[in-house]
Every structure is written in structure tokens, then in C-alpha cells.
């Protein structure tokens, strides 16, 4: 197949036309996919690129969402002004989440500690009702960008798409830079990376902070999309969902993050459109994950890379 | 410590937990020199290298590189100071290609293009295997990648831990020739080697380590064909 890398610019342009063919509900699903693309890109930085089994992602997601929600409801800030602060709150949480890893905690121990961090945050949302609305949740006002109210899913789509494209391109550049190479070296062998002059501790903090920043922005978009935040939105099911996205898409792959988000978010919604399949969504959903992981252990992105090498993630500039 | 000294170690004491391995090691490597550190298994040779490169903190003693103290600093800072170690395990990034491994050698310091030219000059075989995944290469080729990666940062002090370990005689000969070329180009090296013949052939001086102390040493120039005395000092 004759393709070149300009396809990465053409595809988002084609996607711009989606609102012309989708109803409000399907547009909502597409917007949710965009949210999960950022969640997966951020999660993949730590799990796929740095190679650490850390599940603090759901905490970053919740912190970003609540930061945006609290800033809009309590301080009356327009949504667009809360996006970067939400990312920064996620980055701060990322720095905190990197502490166990800095102290040498790895593998399952790191996994369980970071899972606990996510649960601790969920408990915090419940226990701070003045800020977060507690168990009742927090209703987030209609998002606004430069005075323009995003009243429909179509409006939100264009703003979300812009944010996602910017973040994905920036992450791609970062992974192709020396920072990305350092992540790759640490993932392969921490000691060897240190012997090559790479300050592994600093890169751990950097990866977690970047991950927190990106997922925090995703959280902010989620708050704008759903309009109501509840602590249950950030429970262990979310961890499984995020993990399924990057496993199915491809660990450490940007394209995989996009593919995984599309498949995992859209599949249950597509199934619901076929009456004879209604009721078996979970079966099909679970089965699809098992099949992909069994037959494509490196995820859907590896399949795409086989079809055409331009879809292979490049971490080295030629 | 004289002005010609590249690496100077004085009274180094280090070990693992309560197990003291080095009990006051002192040695000096001058600029452009190759010094072979000889000794039986467990004498502390690799521990000396690991302590110099910062993987192990000494409890006593000093390490100086070009008159600057590098005692006890972490490995990434030792690397930046100019000390690069090629460990016995080679520590290669096995999932990555030759190109990726080599480029990682200059990720922090060094000129990537210049480094690659120099490495391919030493190891022409690697330029043919640029895209090959390192885990699929032979032991000798992996050793070439490991030494090549170390050279990418233009080190001031190269620490080689058993470069001939586990290699076929043909590769041992090749590694010996390349090491001699590197010496001619002015690379300063501290070499730990079990292959006595190779070590004495390529080095300017030798030091014998036993029970964590330097017990003997001298120039390799004056050695006759037989190394029986050295073998006796090492093992008996």
C-alpha cells in the first residue's frame, strides 16, 4: 500500500467532517473516544514507554476532572481556562505518584501502591463534599471557550479534537527526542541507562508528571463532556478500562493509544445498535479483548505496522 | 597524585552490606595508559570498577578523575565526568537495534555522528548490522556493540570488565587488536581480564589484586615469554 506520513495530517482533517454524518448521541461517543485517547496516551507514557506497572492513571483522571469542575463551579472560571490548571494538578499528582518508584518500588508492589493512590483519591472526593459534592457528585456548568458556549456535542468535538491533536503531536515529538530515548533505555535496563549517564530518577518523575499532565487534561475534557462528576466515575473499573485500551491498542504506541480508545470505547456502543446482540455486549467486549491479546500481543498497532511501516512508532529521527 | 594521572584511587574500602570486598585499594592510571587489573575470582576486580563508576559507594577512600574527586557520586554523574564502564554482562539494551544502542551511548554527551564514524572505523562489522536487534547477535558482536556504545561518548576513562569473557579465540584476538588500536588513539583504560596472555599483551602495566588489596604490579615491558611468576602471585 503506497502511503506516506501525510496521512497523519489528512486523517484528523477527514475526522472534521464527522459532525455532518453523526447524530448527537454518536457524536457524544466520538467525544468520549477523544477523552480516552488522552487518557491512554498519558497512561502509555508510564506503562508502555517507561515500562513501569503503575496504575495511578485513574487518580490523575479524577484529579484533572475535579480540578476543572471545582475551578468552574467555585471560582466561576470559564472551562477553557481550567484545562491547563487541571493538567498541572494531574502533573503534581504524577510527581507524588512517582515517589514509590523513586524509592525503588517496582512491579506488583508499585502496581498495588498506585492502585491504592487511585482509591485514596476516590475516598477523598467522597470525604470533601464542600469541594467535590461528595457522593452526590459535582455538576459542572456548560463549557465555554472564549465566551463561546459549547452547548452541543458538535461544538465540544471541535475543541476536543484540537486539544487531542496538539497533545498527540507534542507527545510524538517528545518520544522522538532524547527524552523518549531515555525512557526507552530505562524501560530496557535501568542500570544500563544509568551507566549511559541517564539520571533515571529524574526521568521517572518526568514521565509520571507528563503522564499526569496529559491525563489531567483528559479529565478536564471529561468534566466538560459529561457535565456531572461522581466519585464512582473514577473507580477500579476505570483502571481496567484504561489498561484494556493500551493493551489492545499496543503498549508504548501512540497509534495504539488511538486505536485502543476507538475500539474499547466504541464497541459497546456499536453493539447496542444491533437488536439481536443486545444483552451480550459484555461477552463480545471481553471476548474481543482476549482475542486481541492472545493473537496480537503487541496490540492492534503491530497489525497496522505490518500493513504499512509508516504506522510503526519512530523513536529515533533519521 | 601527579599531573599525568587520569584516574587516582587511594585507600578504597567498599563492599556489599557487611561483606567488605575492597580493603584499601590504591592505584593510578596515567593518561593514554592501559592498566590491567588481574586477580583470582572473588579478589574484588569487578568491585573496583563498580565503585569507580558509582554503582557501589565506598565506605572509605577517594577516587579522582583528572584531579577532580568523583568519590561516591551516582553512576549517571560519573558518566558525565567521563568514566564509562563496559560491564561483564555488557548491559546492552537487548530489544533495541545496533543503531539504537550506539546512539544511546551519546544521549547525554558526545557527538553522535562523530561517534558513529569512529565506532564503525573500529568495528566495520557493526555498520553492516546497523538495523539488527542486539539480542540476535553473537557474544563477540554484542561485545563490539558494548565497547562501541561506550566509545560514543568519547570517554576520558574506559573501564573494561572482562572484554574477552565467553568469546571464541577468534573474537578474543579481534578484541585484543581493537583495544590496541584504541590505546594508540589515546583512550585510557582500566582493564579487568582473566585471559592473562591477552591482558599482558595489550596493557602497559599490570596490578594484582588479592583479598581486596593490590599486592603486586609492574610494567608489562620487562616480562619475558613466561608469566609463571604472575600466575603464582595471583593464585598461590
SSE map:
The complex is a heterodimer of chains A (318) and B (236).
Chain A: H1 7-15, H2 18-21, H3 24-49, H4 57-74, H5 79-102, H6 107-127, H7 129-132, E1 138-139, E2 144-145, E3 148-149, H8 153-176, H9 178-188, H10 190-195, H11 200-226, E4 228-229, H12 236-249, H13 254-271, H14 281-295, H15 300-307
Antiparallel strand pairs in A: 1-4, 2-3
Helix pairs in contact in A: 3-8, 3-11, 3-12, 3-13, 4-5, 4-6, 4-11, 5-11, 8-11, 9-11, 12-13, 13-14
Chain B: E1 5-16, E2 19-30, E3 34-38, H1 45-52, E4 60-65, E5 68-69, H2 75-81, E6 83-86, H3 98-105, H4 112-122, H5 124-128, H6 139-151, E7 157-161, H7 169-184, E8 189-192, H8 196-202, E9 205-210, E10 213-219, H9 228-235
Parallel strand pairs in B: 3-8, 3-9, 6-7, 7-8
Antiparallel strand pairs in B: 1-2, 1-4, 4-5, 9-10
Helix pairs in contact in B: 3-6, 7-8
Polypeptide structure, described:
The complex is a heterodimer of chains A (318) and B (236). With 318 residues, chain A is mostly helical. Chain A has 15 helices and four strands. In chain A, the strands form two sheets. In chain A, strands 1-4 form a two-stranded antiparallel sheet. In chain A, helix 5 (79-102) packs antiparallel against helix 11. The model of chain A has no long low-confidence stretch (mean pLDDT 91). By secondary structure, chain B is α/β, with parallel strands linked by helices. Chain B has a domain at 1-81 and 195-236: P-loop containing nucleotide triphosphate hydrolases (Rossmann fold, 3-Layer(aba) Sandwich), CATH 3.40.50. Chain B is built from nine helices and ten strands. In chain B, a hairpin with a 2-residue loop joins strand 1 and strand 2. In chain B, helix 3 packs parallel to helix 6 (139-151) and helix 7 (169-184) runs parallel beside helix 8. Chain A binds chain B through residues 178, 181-182, 184-185, 188-189, 191-200, 315-316, and chain B through 53, 55, 74-77, 79-80, 84-85, 87, 91-96, 99-100, 103-105, 107-109, 149, 153.
Amino acid at each position: 500500500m503506497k502511503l506516506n506520513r501525510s496521512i497523519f495530517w489528512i486523517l484528523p482533517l477527514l475526522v472534521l467532517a464527522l459532525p455532518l454524518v453523526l447524530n448527537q448521541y454518536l457524536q457524544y461517543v466520538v467525544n468520549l473516544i477523544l477523552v480516552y485517547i488522552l487518557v491512554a496516551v498519558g497512561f502509555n507514557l508510564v506503562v508502555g514507554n517507561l515500562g513501569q506497572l503503575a496504575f495511578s492513571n485513574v487518580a490523575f483522571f479524577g484529579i484533572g476532572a475535579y480540578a476543572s469542575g471545582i475551578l468552574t463551579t467555585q471560582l466561576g472560571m470559564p472551562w477553557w481556562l481550567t484545562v491547563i490548571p487541571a493538567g498541572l494538578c494531574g502533573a503534581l499528582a504524577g510527581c507524588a505518584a512517582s515517589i514509590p518508584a523513586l524509592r525503588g518500588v517496582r512491579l506488583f508492589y508499585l502496581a498495588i501502591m498506585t492502585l491504592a493512590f487511585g482509591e485514596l483519591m476516590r475516598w477523598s472526593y467522597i470525604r470533601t463534599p464542600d469541594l467535590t459534592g461528595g457522593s452526590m457528585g459535582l455538576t459542572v456548568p456548560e463549557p465555554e471557550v472564549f465566551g463561546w458556549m459549547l452547548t452541543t456535542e458538535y461544538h465540544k468535538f471541535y475543541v476536543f479534537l484540537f486539544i487531542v491533536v496538539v497533545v498527540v503531536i507534542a507527545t510524538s515529538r517528545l518520544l522522538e527526542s532524547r527524552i523518549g530515548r531515555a525512557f526507552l533505555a530505562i524501560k530496557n535496563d535501568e542500570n544500563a541507562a544509568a551507566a549511559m549517564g541517564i539520571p533515571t530518577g529524574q526521568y521517572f518523575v518526568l514521565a509520571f508528571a507528563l503522564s499526569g499532565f496529559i491525563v489531567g487534561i483528559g479529565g478536564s475534557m471529561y468534566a466538560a463532556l459529561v457535565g456531572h462528576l461522581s466519585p464512582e466515575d473514577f473507580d477500579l473499573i476505570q483502571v481496567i478500562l484504561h489498561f484494556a485500551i493500551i493493551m489492545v491498542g499496543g503498549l508504548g504506541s501512540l497509534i495504539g493509544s488511538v486505536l485502543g480508545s476507538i475500539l474499547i470505547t466504541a464497541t459497546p456502543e456499536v453493539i447496542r445498535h444491533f437488536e439481536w446482540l443486545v444483552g451480550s455486549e459484555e461477552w463480545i467486549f471481553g471476548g474481543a479483548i482476549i482475542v486481541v491479546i492472545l493473537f496480537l500481543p503487541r496490540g492492534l498497532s503491530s497489525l497496522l505496522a505490518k500493513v504499512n511501516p509508516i504506522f510503526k512508532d519512530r523513536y529515533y529521527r533519521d | 597524585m601527579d599531573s599525568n594521572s587520569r584516574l587516582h584511587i587511594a585507600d578504597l574500602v567498599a563492599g556489599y552490606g557487611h561483606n567488605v570486598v575492597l580493603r584499601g585499594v590504591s592505584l593510578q592510571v596515567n593518561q593514554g595508559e592501559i592498566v590491567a587489573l588481574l586477580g583470582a575470582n572473588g579478589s574484588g576486580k569487578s568491585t573496583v570498577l563498580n565503585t569507580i563508576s558509582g554503582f557501589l559507594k565506598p565506605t572509605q577512600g577517594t577516587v579522582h578523575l583528572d584531579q577532580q574527586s568523583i568519590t561516591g557520586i551516582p553512576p549517571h554523574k560519573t558518566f558525565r565526568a567521563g568514566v564509562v564502564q563496559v560491564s561483564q554482562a555488557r548491559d546492552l539494551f537487548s530489544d533495541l537495534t545496533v543503531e539504537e544502542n550506539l546512539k544511546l551511548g551519546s544521549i547525554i554527551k558526545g557527538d553522535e555522528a562523530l561517534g558513529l564514524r569512529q565506532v564503525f572505523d573500529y568495528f566495520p562489522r557493526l555498520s553492516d548490522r546497523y538495523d539488527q536487534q542486539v539480542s540476535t547477535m553473537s557474544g563477540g558482536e554484542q561485545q563490539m556493540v558494548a565497547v562501541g556504545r561506550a566509545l560514543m561518548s568519547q570517554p576520558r576513562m574506559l573501564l573494561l570488565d572482562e572484554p574477552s569473557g565467553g568469546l571464541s579465540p577468534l573474537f578474543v584476538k579481534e578484541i585484543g587488536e581493537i583495544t590496541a588500536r584504541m590505546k594508540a588513539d589515546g583512550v585510557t583504560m582500566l582493564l579487568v581480564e582473566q585471559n592473562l596472555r591477552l591482558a599482558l599483551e595489550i596493557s602497559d602495566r599490570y596490578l594484582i589484586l588479592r583479598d581486596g588489596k593490590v599486592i603486586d604490579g609492574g610494567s608489562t615491558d620487562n616480562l619475558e615469554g613466561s608469566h609463571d611468576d604472575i600466575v603464582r602471585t595471583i593464585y598461590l
